[in-house]
Design goal:
The complex is a heterodimer of chains A (about 170) and B (about 80). Chain A is α+β, with helices and mostly antiparallel strands. Chain A folds into two domains: about 5-55; about 65-174, 3-layer Sandwich (Rieske Iron-sulfur Protein). Helices cover about 25% and strands about 30% of the residues of chain A. Chain A has helices at about 10-15, 20-55; strands at about 65, 75-80, 85-90, 100, 115, 120-125, 130, 135-140, 150-155, 155-160, 170-174. In chain A, strands 1, 2, 3, 4, 9, 10 and 11 form a seven-stranded mixed beta sheet that branches. A four-stranded antiparallel beta sheet of chain A has the order 5-6-7-8, with no helix packed on it. By secondary structure, chain B is mostly helical. Chain B is elongated and about 55 Å long. The chains are: A alpha+beta (about 170), B mainly alpha (about 80). The interface of A and B includes residues 30, 33 and 55 of A.
Amino acid sequence: MSDQANEPHWKRDFPIQRTEATKVSRRDFARFLCLVSGGLATGSAYVAVKANFFPQEEVKGEHFVCKAAGVPLGGTRSFVIEGSSIPYILIHLEDGSWRAYEQKCTHLSCAVYYKPGSGQIVCPCHEGFFDAMTGEVLAGPPPRPLPALEVVMRGEDVYVRAGSEGLANNETHV
Amino acid sequence: MSNFKDAQNKAHPNKTNTLMSALIVVLVLNVSLQIWLLYTGLNNALGKNKDVALPAFIASLVLFLIGFFWLYFLPMGYRNKNNK
């Protein structure tokens, strides 16, 4: 060991002794795991702060979408509420009822579409299926149901407003 | 009087290698639990159920602190220096 100072660089970088070689790599891996653990704790903190102090704003008031005659049975119309960038989809179901959902799939935000006659909303990216009546997930990777808006009919005009708790997807006639 | 670190440095390399492997297994379990906590906190927060987010964060923080202090047991490999 007395010639440590004269030893060439490559010998120091690639030690022959097995214990030295294994110890260095596993020690660094353990420290790296601790760093990843810290990063995940930070991520959880961000989610907690964002959910409790900066919640997503609810849709306020009623918004006009279109005339009822403009959407045939089994048809859909995409719309956006002013002041927000979220795309929505209005569906005129075959039984005459109306539904409005966010068009962003809850898996990875692909645009979903309604498959006429099937009663299902389909996400083509990863074969996710939602129930058109309730927005609940039927099959595929999406983890949550589609967020819904309440559809309100005022004569021939179709309006939407924020869905209230426990009144999911019920339309009301005024 | 020797302390824990002195005793560890004089130990046979097989013991320190086993210890290192066990340490990494515990850290991997910690990270797996934290990944699950983050996923469930985020999924519920996006689904308008924000009550899960704070307990999930507290549990994740506790797991990180456990892992961080667990590193005290990490062998530092000073054995060869002491034997010069």
